[in-house]
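Late entry, evening session. Most of the bench is empty. Finally got around to the prediction I had been postponing all week. Sequence below, unchanged from the version circulated by S.P.
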Amino acid sequence: MSQTMNINSTQKIIKNSLYLILQPLILNVISIFAVGYIARYLGKAYYGQFIFAFSFIQLFAPIYMGGLSIYIVRTLAESKKDISLFVGKVLSLRIILGLIAMLLTVSVINFLGYSLNQKILVYIAAVTLVSNAILMTCIDIIQSFENMKYVSLINMISGLVLTALSVIAVFMGFGVKVLAMTYTFGNIVGMLLGLFLLNSKFVVPQLRFDLKFSKECLLNSFHFFYPNIAGMLGTKFCLVVLSKFSGDMSIGIYAAADNLVSRLMIVYDGTCSSFYPTMVSTYKKSIEEAISLFRKFFVYLLILGVPIAVGCSLLSKEIIFLIYSSSYIKSVLVLQISIWSLTFMFQNALMGYTIASIHKEKHSAMIRTVCASIAIILSFSIIPILKEIGLSISILASQFVLFIINVFLIQRFLTVCLIKRSHLLKVILVNGLLAFFILMIRGLNLFIVVLMAVSFYFILIMYVKIFDLHEFVKNFYSRNLSKGK
């Protein structure tokens, strides 16, 4: 019985993860070249202004997120009683919080001494705080049903609209303000599609603002608020520090590398979004199966995250030159440092969701606040000296500290053994061989190198038996076959 439960849980997560990873990953491959085209056209200074605007508004996103996403998904994963009324009340609350976030953004930027052009860009970007507040609610509800193909559809269509319009705007010679408008419009398209799918496929919300419910909802999600605000402060606030000490060009240099890293975040984001509701329901039924599920996906994310960091580190110059041109050569070192932050983010996301699923989020919240403080202190200390490199080091250091503490929390509240020693040694071995292989062939065309490296790594992990392709395929297809019957 327990083995069947574990297989079904794995099937569900793998299938949903593939929906949330593969389609956005394809879109990200397309959009990264669009971003490179835009960055070349705008130049480092204007590109820096554009990135700053959309990064600055993220400082206020926790107001409408407020830990609500994790709370909503966990609540509905455990019970869907009176869901229509529940969703309507949450949606009303989120709209109000989105409006508050937008107004605060506009107010704060006016007091920070930025240029009029930068302020206008922030005003345009701030509109997405409201549309994203609504969209996030739709995605949270859909996610609680553990049916991620619709989430993937929303991201795909809004992303394609955004990418196409932004390229057209640049091709026709429009400036950075019109470019910002295309990004805002793309977010609004996603919001409208989210509302349509929520109403037609899942539940029709009974819109109603309930003050008592809102207070209770915010109070219950308060422990989740800390990780959100801490995460934003640990990255986006540091970007504000960089803009004040080093200016728009440093923002552009850092953003060129960070855009590559952020697009790879879809791997752990998609996996963890699928993992979380399943982990909640599995833990409620069987702690033993929850432990087994966590260990399995800890290994999966490790064999995904480490080779990405190894490959990007060794091929960073070729990647930056291909996408952005040699004028962004200073972004090479930023990418080499930032990509290792991503490896820790993979595991930190998984452990963070796991801690939340077992109702220990208050511990995680306090730790993330401490780690964000470390990033901010380091930013003020080394950004004035090392500029964009200092920002990369600050974020890497904070993610490493967060990883160490998350491991401690998992060992304390769930399981002492996160990964078998043999699996860890195999991961180190295959990635060492991968690095050597890349160094041997890096003189070839970049696309050929990537294709050969991926193939070589896949053969290695199959050979050392750290990854079972037969089990993976069975988990993905058996769920579809069972539905067909």
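Two things to note before I forget:
Residues 2-419 form one domain.
Residues 1-5, 472-485 have pLDDT under 50 and may be disordered.
Will write this up properly tomorrow.
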